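Class, look over these C-alpha cells:
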Amino acid sequence: MIVSLFAMQTNAQQLSTSVTQSYAFRLRPNQDLKKELQRFIDEKQISAACVLTCVGSLTSVNIRYANQEKYEMLKGHFEIVSLVGVLSKNGSHIHISVSDSTGKTIGGHLGDESLIYTTAEIVLGIMPDYDFVREPDPTFGYKELVVRRRKKK
C-alpha cells in the first residue's frame, strides 16, 4: 500500500495544473445518455474532460456492476443521483448511480441505451492542456487512463 501511494503521489507531482473550461447543456427525453455524451466529445474533438455534475432522470439504465462482465438493463423511472467520468475522443469511462421510486440506489458502469426520461442537465469540465488516452494495463488487461500533457504549439 505504501508503494502504491508513493507511486500515485509521484504521478500527481509530475502533472501541473491547467485552466479548465466548461460546457453546460441539457439532454431531452429519449436521448441516450452515454451516446450523447460521447457524441458531444467527438464532435468538439475534446481530448480531456470530466463530468462536473449531472442531474436528471432515466426510463432505462444499462449498468454493469463491479467485477461483472455483462450489463443489466433496468426499466422504470430513475433519478440520476451521480454521474462521474473521464471523457475523451480517445475513449471514455463513465459511472452512474441512480435511485428508484423507493429510494433504492445502485451504481456501476454506464452503458448504451440508458434513456433520458425528463431531462439530463450536464456540466462538463474541459482540460485543453491534456490528452486522455486509454492503454492496456498489464495488471488486469483493461485499457486504463493515461494522462499526457499536450505539447504547446
Q: What stands out?
A: Strands lie at 21-27, 49-64, 72-87, 93-99, 105-110, 116-126, 130-136, 143-149. The two ends are 39 Å apart (CA to CA).
